[in-house]
């Protein structure tokens, strides 16, 4: 059975105060979530300690990015080993903002994924097409290419069975991030089914890999998205900064049957 996950990506937002209040609230509500969803909060790395202190095991914690090295003279970077040492379980890799604003390529994504899974953490690998790519009918092939290239090290891992267990894929159409535009549940489902078939082609246990949808997920569209058979939860940006909205979205994950 696939894990159902709702992850809140705070991006470059937040404070000690938000870490205390929002995470405290989410922790309090997490106990009453009876749908088996795993709630994850991904704050700026500086606040991981504050978030973990409030999460107290009821909420999982991740970082938004890591460097492609484990240690050394790389000023400003943090490594997967450090994220693990700090108490994180998840690392976002290849978010479209990293790809667009910081020049991250599929090859760099692959290097990072390889280090993340070697550390025993789970990589949430982000993929998604731009509006121009969707309009020209290339969305599926662009996303398939990102999946194949970004996960090549998993496919080639010595113990690939174990490596695939540390992979979650988040489909986030670039044109839907922070814009208020969401893919329709049908379009998102179609892309998720396509990603699952690419994973299968790569030899992955595709039916066991959680696929999250992200891009303007809000309390009023989460139910439709999460009821699709290949959508196993969400990666939430803006709405994860408002405690009540984030918890409502978590509640919309249907209970596993
Ligand atoms: P959004 O961001 O929910 O604000 O669109 C999603 C994301 O970038 O992960």
């Amino acid at each position: 059975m696939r894990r159902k996950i709702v992850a809140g990506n705070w991006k470059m937002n937040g404070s000690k105060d938000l870490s205390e209040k929002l995470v405290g609230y989410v922790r309090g509500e997490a106990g009453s979530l009876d749908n088996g969803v795993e709630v994850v909060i991904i704050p700026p790395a500086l606040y991981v300690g504050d978030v973990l202190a409030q999460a107290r095991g009821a909420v999982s914690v991740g970082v938004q990015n890591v460097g492609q090295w484990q240690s050394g003279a790389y000023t400003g970077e943090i490594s997967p080993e450090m994220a693990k040492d700090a108490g994180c379980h998840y690392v976002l890799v290849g978010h479209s903002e990293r790809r667009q604003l910081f020049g991250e390529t599929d090859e760099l994504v692959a290097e990072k994924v390889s280090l993340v899974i070697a550390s025993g953490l789970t990589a949430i690998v982000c993929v998604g097409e731009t509006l121009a790519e969707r309009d020209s009918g290339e969305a599926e092939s662009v996303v398939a290419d990102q999946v194949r290239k970004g996960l090549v090290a998993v496919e080639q891992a010595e113990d690939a069975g174990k490596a695939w267990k540390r992979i979650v894929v988040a489909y986030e159409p670039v044109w839907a991030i922070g814009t208020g535009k969401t893919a329709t549940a049908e379009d998102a489902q179609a892309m998720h089914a396509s990603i699952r078939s690419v994973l299968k082609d790569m030899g992955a246990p595709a039916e066991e890999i959680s696929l999250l949808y992200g891009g303007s997920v809000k309390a009023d569209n989460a139910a439709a998205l999460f009821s699709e058979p290949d959508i196993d939860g969400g990666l939430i940006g803006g709405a994860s900064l408002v405690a009540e909205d984030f918890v409502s979205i978590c509640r919309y994950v249907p209970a596993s049957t």
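The pocket of 2-phosphoglycolic acid is lined by residues 9, 172, 177-178, 214-217, 235-239 (CB under 6 Å). The chain has twelve helices and eight strands.
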